[in-house]
């Protein structure tokens, strides 16, 4: 068994699953609030849609890192490379920053949910709701960047 490959695959799994689950939770919060608010005024759907999409970006970031890891070890091309344990561990660690920072999707969902409430009562203020949600996004982007830097630093 190639333990380096197993470690790398664990990194890809961390990168994809934690942000994916967190994004689903965040989107769920916003979706519930949006559906409730549209009962009163369905014309705000477009504004709610932007807020609904934001917590999903962490899941996309995780998918990108997971894909880059499996591409680096040769799964995408159909021929696995041989990895040392230290190389596999390094690829596992490449998945950790986005895996952990991807948890921000939960809190971003909560901020976006509050933004739905703001937009429902004051549609002209929807831009402010979006700006508040983007502040949470910033930390997921930092995790994505660190994962990319680690990933590209691993020589296979």
Written as H for each helix and E for each strand, in order along the chain, the element string is: HHHHHH
Q: Which structural class best describes the helix and strand composition?
A: mainly alpha
CATH architecture: Up-down Bundle
Q: Strand content of the residues, in percent?
A: under 5%
Helical proportion, percent range: over 70%
Low-confidence runs:
none
**Could you name the CATH topology?**
Four Helix Bundle (Hemerythrin (Met), subunit A)
Q: What is the averaged pLDDT score? A: 96
Q: Overall 3D geometry?
A: elongated
- Please tally the β strands and state the result: 0
Count of discrete structural domains: 1
What is the CATH homology-level superfamily?
Answer: lithium bound rotor ring of v- atpase
Question: What would a concise description of this structure say?
Answer:
With about 160 residues, this protein is an all-alpha fold. It is built from six helices and no strands. It has one domain: lithium bound rotor ring of v- atpase (Four Helix Bundle (Hemerythrin (Met), subunit A), Up-down Bundle).
């Amino acid at each position: 068994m190639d333990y380096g490959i197993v470690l790398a695959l664990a990194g890809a799994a961390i990168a994809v699953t934690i942000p994916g689950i967190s994004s689903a939770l965040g989107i769920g919060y916003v979706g519930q609030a949006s559906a409730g608010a549209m009962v009163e005024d369905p014309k705000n759907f477009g504004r709610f849609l932007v807020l609904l999409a934001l917590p999903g970006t962490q899941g996309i970031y995780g998918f990108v890192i997971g894909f880059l890891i499996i591409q680096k070890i040769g799964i995408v091309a159909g021929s696995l490379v041989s990895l040392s344990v230290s190389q596999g561990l390094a690829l596992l660690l490449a998945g950790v920053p986005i895996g952990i920072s991807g948890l921000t999707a939960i809190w971003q969902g909560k901020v976006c949910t509050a933004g739905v409430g703001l937009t429902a009562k004051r549609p002209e203020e929807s831009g402010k709701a979006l700006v508040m949600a983007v502040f949470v996004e910033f930390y997921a982007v930092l995790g994505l960047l660190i994962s990319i830097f680690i990933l590209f630093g691993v020589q296979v």
